[in-house]
Amino acid sequence: MIILGIETSCDETAISIIEASGGAKIRVLSNVIISQIEIHKPYGGVFPALAKREHARNLTPMLEQTLNEAGLLTSSKQQVSSSKDDDFKKLLEREPELLAALLEFLPKIKVPKIDAIAVTYGPGLAPALWVGINFARALSLAWEKPVIPVNHMEGHVFSALLKKSRKEFPIFNFQFPNTPVLALLISGGHTEIVLIKKPFQYKVVGETRDDAVGEAFDKAARILGLPYPGGPEISLRAEKFRKRRRTSDQPLATSYHLPRPMIRSDDFDFSFSGIKTAVLYMVKKIENLTEGITEDLREEICYEFEEAVTETLLSKTLRATEKYKPKTVIMGGGVTANVHIQKMFKETFEKKFPDIKILVPEKNLSTDNALMIAVAGYMRALHNPKKILEPNGRKMKALRADGNLSL
Fold first, then answer.
1. CA end-to-end span of the chain
2. Separation CA 244–CA 142 (nearest Å)
3. Reduced to 3 DSSP states, what percent helix, strand and coil does the chain have, rounded to the nearest 5?
4. Cα dihedral sign for 150, 16, 12, 277?
5. What is the reported pTM?
6. 379 Cβ contact partners less than 8 Å away, ≥ 6 residues apart
7. Which CATH class is domain 2-160+365-398?
């Protein structure tokens, strides 16, 4: 089964094509991602209108690239019928640039040999999601291929279950671990602990009450005068401070302490708004007492921030592990690329729960990507064929973006 995956939930435009067989073997035919980081840097975060515009600009040329890389691009002189033109115009009336690009590109190629189109329909930024959904529906209309709606967070769960089988080939093995499974999903828009008692059955047992952890990294970085995205910038400086501590003749004690929000609460919820505010007050106090924040001080605060966040995430996950006794713990989402967080989770679980395996996605699969959407779509189709939406069917017309979609 060949699946075309589309991901536009935030600020990465991504398209992937996979060939899946037997429910376990995933061959990647193409996997393309365009990041919008440089475009959003001046705003210190993702600006939804710009994200929507860039998705509309990127999708058609990316489709051509992925089809070509997958060996599925064949030229054709067939023309799109006027009736289909009318359907296209109605479907993409709010995306004139995307409409024009598709009407120019699609008549030039033969219908590719794909079996279905998987697309993210939530959660995420609604304007960005709509571009991907309408793009998928337009391709479904043109090629008469079914669409599989995919929950973005399920994609992050599945990304941790993909393991390369052979280095020389882009082939992954997918295997759902023994249940129950506990998943910690941490990204710029989400922080949640999910209990998976059976495959495809999810229960959110803990979530953030305000800022997501990735959002907190970005906001703290902005306060410290660091560029967007803040996570890598803070981690870089935190590691510099750790190196100074390791190589110093005298132990370097931190002069500043940040709170560990809700670390002793009776639930598994998170709150990262307060720690961001604490950084703000800390910086203001330093600026009032000194001429400003030196780079050494900035590194120290970054270190304390990363330690506080890591301790909070780890503490909650450990307590959830004690309660639900999972056989596997999954980490998913962009923040899993944080080297220190990964290291502390693996070391701590090895000591406290040596029989529990920690699964983390490969770095290039931790951030938003269409490969995980294609895989999730394929697995969903195997598990529940009713999830597949036929072209022009009633369910297809009812497909909508859901920015607050839950697992």
1. 25
2. 59
3. 50, 20, 30
4. positive
5. 0.93
6. 23, 158, 174, 200
7. alpha beta
Identical fold between 2-160+365-398 and 177-360: yes
Instruction: Return the HEC string of 328-389.
Output: EEEEECHHHHCHHHHHHHHHHHHHHCCCCEEECCCHHHHCCCHHHHHHHHHHHHHHCHHHCE
SS3 53: helix
**What letters, b where the CB count within 10 A reaches 16 and e where it falls short, cover 280-318?**
eebbeebeeeeeebeeebbbbbbbbbbbbbbebbbbbbb
Half-sphere exposure of 249 (CA within 13 A, CB side): 0
Coil, helix or strand at residue 407: coil
Backbone angles phi, psi at 52, to 5 degrees: -60, -45
Separation of alpha carbons 281 and 365, rounded Å: 36
* Nearest-angstrom CA–CA distance, 268 and 142: 46
177-360: CATH class: alpha beta
**Kind and range of the H or E element at 223?**
helix 213-223
Task: Convert the pLDDT of each residue in 270-315 to its tens digit.
Answer: 999 999 999 999 999 888 877 778 899 999 999 999 999 999 999 9
| DSSP code string of 56-105 | HHHHHHHHHHHHHHTT---B--PPPPHHHHHHHHHHTTT-HHHHHHHHHH
Residue ranges covered by each domain of the chain: 2-160+365-398, 177-360
**pLDDT (0 to 100) of residue 290:** 73
pLDDT in tens, 144-195: 999 999 999 999 999 999 998 766 568 999 989 999 999 999 999 999 999 9
Cβ-contact 361, 332 below 8 angstroms: yes
Q: Hunting for tokens 């870089």 — which residue is that?
A: 236
Q: Which of 60, 61, 63, 46 is nearest to 11 (CA)?
A: 46
Q: Please, are residues 56 and 36 in contact by the beta-carbon 8 Å criterion?
A: no
Cα torsion angle, 74, 78, 80, 83, sign:
negative
Count of beta carbons in the 10 Å neighbourhood of residue 205: 17
| Residues ≥6 apart with Cβ < 8 Å to 79 | 107
Token pair for residue 301? Answer: 């605060």
